[in-house]
Design brief:
The protein is built from three helices and 32 strands. With about 475 residues, the protein is of the alpha+beta class.
């Protein structure tokens, strides 16, 4: 009976008391990859609405200070700071994000937050939302650079499996390590002291017999750099040293270390009672061995076993040709001689002038053994066999044309002389005719004069004589 009474009382309480239901909740967050930006630059922020309960619809607005920020882009459908969506399905969404890009206008600090919003669940009940904003600091470029870290130290430096000397100290920059003779590569471990810094030169590195030098460079956030030098000595119990000029080199004893030339076959040569890996070619007649400098750089050299001499072997790979450039006593007429750089190799060459696109150099085609001049195109960095047959034909034509031109010039001069002589003869003949005419005119004048004189004399004879009795003189009769 008591049990039934208890159940009735409990039922009555459930009927009388109101049933409380917790409203659905969610969050609005404004985030960005950085909270600091240089004035005049852009910054992108993300507004994220999320909830564990499906969201049916929403309307919210991102508040920002237009004195500091100018909206230049957004993923919102409105194209503005307003974000809204009506219920499109019964399932809803649990998260929705919008991006906003702003251009900063002046220095200072400003806050971006979602100030007003209405969020509804799929059952159209209003959701309880908590909202957090984002503070952005706008600074000058000078302020940004002043804030950069200057730390360019290493925190640690080691060679995996070996001990470096001296013990690492961030203020010491010179280290060395000795490794066994058969070591082909090492692993350098280097950790920066500041996470904002970057390290280059660490990792797996190839080493060869003798001295190998590596540089580990630490670049601080502000751009300043610090270099740590590591010398790795690969043991060589009996090194073969070679001196060329002022440079001290060492013969390479391990084939894997050698560069591989084109069209050569592997072989060995005996140097100081050691079998040294080498390359040979019947076409060029060369035997190549490797020499290493103090920095660990390996290059091929032409080895003359009879004279025990070494000469650098520079192989030029140009389009489909492999050429070994060499010197010659042959001279190309009409060209200047000098040097040009091909694939970082200085080569003796001939060219018309310093600005010429083409140059001619002498060499050996290592694939065919053919020796002669090659024409190099500086623009395309290609080479072809130089053939002077066309040039000789052209020269012959030029010579022929020269003779023809000189012949025409001679004929013109001869005709000119003949013309001058003819003009002179004509002028002389004309002068003679003029003189003859003058003489004839003179004779005519003389004849006329004689006639006048004769007439005068005739008149004088015909006049009667009259006497002047007074003066006793003769007078002419008027």
């Amino acid at each position: 009976m008591k049990k039934i009474k208890f159940l009735l009382i409990s039922l009555l309480i459930l009927i009388v008391l109101p049933i409380s239901v917790n409203a659905a909740s969610g969050t609005i967050k404004v985030t960005s990859r950085t909270n600091q930006v240089v004035v005049g630059n852009q910054i992108t922020l993300t507004v994220t609405l999320s909830s564990s309960t499906p969201i049916g619809s929403w309307e919210m607005n991102l508040d920002y200070d237009k004195n500091y920020l100018e909206l230049v882009g957004t993923s919102s459908d409105s194209g503005s700071s307003r974000m809204a969506s009506v219920m499109q399905s019964t399932t809803g969404v649990t998260s929705k994000s919008y991006t906003f890009t702003f251009r900063t206008k002046k220095t200072g600090s400003t806050i971006l937050k979602v100030g007003t919003y209405d969020i509804y669940a799929v059952d159209e009940s209003q959701m309880s939302i908590s909202s957090t904003g984002r503070t952005i600091r706008i600074i000058t470029q000078e302020e940004l650079e002043a804030s950069y870290s200057k730390d360019n130290d290493l925190k640690s430096l080691s060679v995996e499996g070996f001990e470096i000397t001296p013990e690492f100290d961030k203020d010491v920059t010179e280290y060395s390590v000795v490794v066994p003779e058969n070591t082909a590569e090492i692993t350098i471990n280097a950790e920066e002291n500041d996470n904002a810094a970057t390290v280059t030169g660490a990792g797996t590195q190839t080493v060869t017999q003798g001295t190998n030098t590596f540089q580990i460079v630490v670049r601080a956030e502000n751009g300043s750099e610090k270099t740590y030098n590591l010398t790795v000595e690969v043991k060589d119990a009996n090194p073969i040293n070679v001196t060329i000029g002022d440079e001290n080199l060492t013969v390479v004893k391990i084939k894997d270390y050698l560069p591989v030339p084109n069209a050569y076959q592997e072989t060995t040569v005996n140097i100081n009672d050691f079998e040294i890996p080498a390359y040979t070619s019947e076409l060029t007649g060369f035997t190549l061995v490797g020499l290493k400098d103090a920095s660990g750089n390996i290059a091929l050299y032409i080895y003359d076993s009879n004279a025990n001499t070494y000469k650098i072997y520079n192989e030029l790979k140009l389009n489909n040709l492999t050429i070994y450039p060499t010197n010659t006593d042959k001279v190309l007429d009409g060209y200047k001689s000098g040097t040009i750089t091909i694939n970082d190799v200085d080569v003796n060459a001939y060219y018309v002038n310093d600005d010429s696109r083409f140059a001619i150099f002498y060499g050996i085609n290592v694939e065919t053994g053919e020796e002669g001049f090659f024409k190099y195109d500086k623009d395309n960095q290609t080479a072809i066999k130089y053939d002077d047959e066309m040039l000789n034909v052209l020269n012959e034509k030029i010579t022929l044309y020269t003779y023809i031109i000189f012949g025409f010039i001679g004929l013109f001069v001869l005709m000119f002389i003949i013309l001058i002589c003819a003009l002179k003869g004509k002028k002389k003949h004309k002068n003679k005719e003029i003189k003859e005419k003058k003489d004839n005119i003179k004779e005519i004048k003389e004849e006329k004069k004689d006639i006048v004189v004769e007439k005068e004399n005739s008149k004088t004879k015909q006049q009667p004589i009259v006497y002047d009795n007074v003066n006793n003189k003769k007078k002419k009769k008027k």
